[in-house]
Amino acid sequence: MTDHGVAVPERAGSGLEGPRAKEYAAVEPVPIEDRNIGPGDMFATWVGANANNGTWYVGGVVAAACFVPSLYVTALANPVAYIVMALVGLIGFRAGVSTMAITRFAFGIRGSLLPSLLNTTQFIGWTAVNTFIAAISVSFVLKELLGWPAYGEPGSDATMLAGIVVMSALHLVSIAAGHNSVKIVERVGVALVVLLAAWETAVVFQQVSLSQIVAWRPPPDKALPFGAAMDIMAAFSLGWVPAIAEFTRYCKTKTSATWVPMLGANVGLFWFALTGTVVTIGAAVATGSYDPNNSDPSAVVSKLGLGMVAFLVIIITSTTANAINLMAAGISLTNMTAKMKALPALWAVTAVAAAVTAVPLYTGGFLHAFILFLEYIGMVFGPVFAIVIADYYLVNRGRYDVAAIDRRDGRYWFCGGVNRRAAAVWAAGVTVFLLLREAPLCVETTGATFPAMALTGALYYLAAGGRQEHHPSAGEQVLDEQPGGEQEAEEGVGLGGGHHSGH
Which of 72, 93, 216, 413 has the fewest Cβ atoms surrounding its Cβ within 10 A? Predict the structure, then answer.
């Protein structure tokens, strides 16, 4: 059936009969009457997703490309990544299912299991990254309050473990009621992050001039090529794409699902990456040393002497980002097994993330692990979403049959549950990324991520036989009339009954 122009199929055993669930599992389409996220909450969510310590940290890392090149990197890599996010978000809005459930349409019901597993892994990893950075702030707070050794001092491992426990407790609170509690956390977090960014930037410019920041150069052994910086920033932003439909499926209008998160994500990222770059270079100028391992907000706050309040704000803003990470990880888990309900899945991934966060304490080299993690995201998920976008917008012309999303005898079962052509193109896309990453031209200019995505999408289009002939069934072309007065005649909004390409 369609409701306000959004296809919301009725499926036996979907969990949509009877009382409404607080949180829908991956393949359960969210009906229009249960969609409760408007443009204000989506904007706050995606500003909060990016205006946090992880973005600050990556801004400090790309500072090694020097100030002006780092601005170009941010201005080029992130808008492209968030256009990809908006395109995937629109699919989630129309289908009402999660991001990893969307991959079923291109990769097959079983074929989506590997992207889902990797996605759960990457968002647990992101949670661990942000938690580790926030735990550093907790360690400084505990030093101030209790005299315990802060991060980097002898005996600080126990303090960091205490910080991880504190952050994990905050994470459980933030996702206790699914997307509804996330909305509340983001509203609070955005207000606090405004305070922190303005304060710290003002303090830096009291100590260091803009001309000094522009003129600064990193030590030769720490310099970062432009293309390598592009890959780091592109992977950082693309890391949010697998989470977008977890929220757009609850949106009331198409604008809330596309333009608003794209705008919020760009605002948050430009703002905090720039803050991270300026503050990290400012600290390097003021102290005479640059170490990207110490680009995290806590280390810089300590160097600048901003005090307890700044540490507390960092801790809270980490929670805003991790609420989204944990939502994406937990809902991805439900795409792999129907036995796992949404909220228990969220709680489970929170516990696993807490354990993973402790790993850098015993392996060392947080920066090295962070960059390897970003390379993994670009390598794996760039090709995945190139295929998803090509399949929906080019091959199937915006029509999917959501009612068949979990049918073994349906069109998305392909061969044994796997679309082998999509799997082969994905493997080819990963190979292309690995080859381009070593190419001197890419290292110095574009990076490997976006060229690999473009080639993967084109290869999938050719492998799928190009644009398919489509014979719409009755009711498939509808008037897309969204709640809140947003109305548009749109071909292909209906998601049921279309002809899927015979991969």
Answer: 72
**pLDDT value at position 6?**
39
Helices (H), 242-307: 245-248, 254-257, 259-287, 297-304
Per-residue exposure over 97-120, b if at least 16 CB sit within 10 Å of its own CB, e if not: bbbbbbbbbbbbbbbbbbbbebbb
Q: How far apart are CA 36 and CA 54, in angstroms?
A: 28
Q: Let me know if 76 is exposed, middle or buried by CB neighbors in 10 A (0-12, 13-18, 19+).
A: middle
Nearest to 311 by CA among 145, 156, 162, 139: 139
Whole-number Å distance between alpha carbons of 17 and 12: 8
Question: Among all chains, which residue has been given the structure tokens 């030769």?
Answer: 220
For residues 271 and 116, the answer to whether their CB atoms sit within 8 Å is no
* pLDDT tens digits for range 26-45: 889 999 888 988 998 899 88
Spatial distance between the Cα atoms of 202 and 185, rounded to a whole number of angstroms:
26
Sorted by where each starts, the structural domains of the chain and their CATH numbers stand as 31-366 (1.10.4160.10)
Distance, CA of 10 to CA of 64 (rounded, Å): 53
**pLDDT tens digit sequence for 347-385:** 888 888 888 888 777 766 565 676 677 777 878 999 999
Instruction: Measure the CA–CA gap between 465 and 434, rounded to whole angstroms.
Output: 26
* DSSP summary character for residue 13: T
500 falls in which pLDDT band (50, 70, 90)? very low
Q: How far apart are CA 446 and CA 468, in angstroms?
A: 32
Residue 409 has pLDDT above 90, yes or no: no
Residue range 482-499: mean pLDDT, rounded: 38
Tokens of residue 385, six digits: 């979403």
Instruction: For 160, list phi and psi in degrees, rounded to 5.
Output: -65, -40
Residue 81 to residue 453: CA distance in whole angstroms: 11
- pLDDT beyond 80 at 198: no
Q: Are 436 and 234 in contact (CB under 8 A)?
A: no
**Structure-token pair, residue 284:** 């390097």
**156 phi and psi, to 5 degrees?**
-80, -10
Among 192-201, 222-231, 275-284, 304-313, the range of highest mean pLDDT: 222-231
Q: Is residue 247 within 8 Å of 90, Cβ to Cβ?
A: no
Please indicate whether residue 165 or residue 85 has the higher confidence score (pLDDT). 85
Exposure string of 125-158, with b = 16+ CB inside 10 Å and e = fewer, is bbbbbbbbbbbbbbbbbbbeeeebbbbeeeebee
Rounded mean pLDDT, 208-221: 89
